[in-house]
Amino acid sequence: MLDNILESLAFILGTTLMYSAPLIYTALGGVISENSGVVNIGLEGMMTIGAFFGATVGYYSGNPWLGFLVGGLAGGALALLHAIASVTFAADQVVSGIAINFLGPGLALFLSRMFFDGATMTRPIDLEDKIPRSLDKILTKGTFIEKVFNQYDTVYLAFILVAIIWFILYKTKLGLRIRAVGEHPKAADTLGINVYNIRYLCVFLSGVFAGFGGAAMSLAVVSNFRPTLISGQGFIALAAMIFGKWKPQGAMLACLLFGAAQGLVVFLGGTEFQVPSEILAMIPYVLTLIILMGFVGRATPPAADGVPYEKDSN
Amino acid sequence: MFKKVLSLLMVSVFILTLAVGCGAGGQNDTGENEDKVKIAMVTDVGGVNDQSFNQSAWEGLQRAEEELGIEVSYLESNQDADYIPNLETLLDANNDLIWGIGYKMGNAILEAAKQNPDQKYAIIDYAYEDTPDNLVGVVFKAEQPSFLVGYIAGKMTETGKVGFVGGIKSAVIDGFDYGFHAGVKYANPDVEIIRQYAESFTDSAKGKAIATNMFQNGADIVFHAAGAVGDGVIEAAKEQGKYAIGVDRDQNYLAPDNVITSAMKRVDNAMFNMAKELKEGNFPGGQTVVYGLKEGGVDIAPTTSKHVPADILEEVEELKQKIIDGEIVVPFNEETYNEFISENIK
Fold this sequence. Notes:
Chain B: Keywords: Cell membrane, Lipoprotein, Membrane, Signal. The complex is a heterodimer of chains A (314) and B (346). In chain A, 70% of the residues lie in helices and 0% in strands. With 314 residues, chain A is an all-alpha fold. Chain B folds into two domains: 19-140 and 267-291, Response regulator (Rossmann fold, 3-Layer(aba) Sandwich); 143-264 and 309-344, Response regulator (Rossmann fold). Chain B has a seven-stranded mixed sheet with strand order 1-3-2-4-5-6-12, sandwiched between helices. In chain B, strands 8-7-9-10-11-13 form a six-stranded mixed sheet, sandwiched between helices. The interface between A and B is large, with 50 and 50 residues.
């Protein structure tokens, strides 16, 4: 009996980690961008392009980390378009984000056909050429610990990055500047901070992180890219960021919650517990809504979030 | 000022993306030879090289071109909104038959058929309640190959447990589901089958979680009928060193050591046969044509022999013959499944 419970728990926790890692990267991207005052709803498109480049470079080079890195850079490149539109030209950030969400999948599809003889999905990567599972050799097979923690390294990297971003945002001069630009760009500007540079950096980084999120899907969760691989994760990450009150640790918790709900749903669907799977499939979303309404309380975005900064205007 | 320039830019980017969406292909503008039969197809959003049914459909037409001398062409759709304009384009090109590939085009094709009663249409994977005389719906007996792969799973399982992962419950997926169940039970009534639906055709991570759970609960072979969710199922088999069974086409290439067989739809054969019927003047307008093992419309993957022992393969061949002869009628929903079980399994 106890064994059964432990085994179920191990499965749910393991699934939570697997499911939430790509979301955490992407939500972190959202946190960075929005703390500097640029709304980024283009995360989904950046994730898609990251997933494509991750799988493609990983397949051709045989080096998953190179693929992961290029996936991030591809997301960053797409994000630069968003930065040009929303920072330099002070365009509506939502509109430009939507454009990115169209552009990302379209570009991925187009390039996929170029690199894979017209196919819309990339070739699968062998198990040994995927992101490694460093703990695979250390942990004893079949134990509770192994079932929970035998994850791809990208999962652990996600948590490390949460800590790093938290440190940068709240403990360094750069972080202070980022938040100042997000709260009151004019004041920051008068103090000699270059608002444009900070925002460019942050939007670029948000693309890199979203790209990492996508690549974590295509190089670890599965081993190939297809156009439907990223379908909604970018938006879930966006919601998680708001849910987490624009803080890296909050966003991480929200992603974990969402992942746990998915793990629970899959677990319940596999038991004798008779609930229609349509209802089960709703749980993660309903749970998110309920917690958002009841427990999180007022979530206040950075004051200048979504407002383009123009030096000459007031 | 900048804003205006920018919004102009954005709009042009949008339009460009949309325009790139509907690329044309094939050799469709040599309409000089009047007595040549012309057939064209519109792909769904997968495109003509999707390594799935669109590609298979195009291969069927290419074969018709080689063997029957039919003139063939295709138009690709990159989004659902492209179906109607693509159908219009083909209508203007004097085709004898226009194909829609995939159930997603069901409504677009029906509308086109109603508006242009002189043009012949056909669609893959769709059965209409009331089919106009110039339209044919083509469906596949998915339960038959599912039965065969189920039989293989039932014979090959070492743990006495196998799994089925479905996408979203529907009549089509029921065919896979109950066909597979029947096959497993026919091979060995004592094998337990775990069934779970992902409620998605795209969430690969969920597919992976479901299959991982099944493997942890003792299953050693999992069959999926769940589109991209199946990528996750196959990935789980790969990671855990277990077996998976592919669907629609030969999915062995996704994990050569783990995908032991696949339940295939031979869309190419259906397209070829229809071309032949059309050329011979036997176009079955107004009907729904069902392709099964007998018509060569479904099969199991050619790579099956890599993993499945020869004696089981022989039994599968015998089963195929029995299904073709009508000795075994494979169930396709819950009701027929229960009948099947009470008649065949003591």
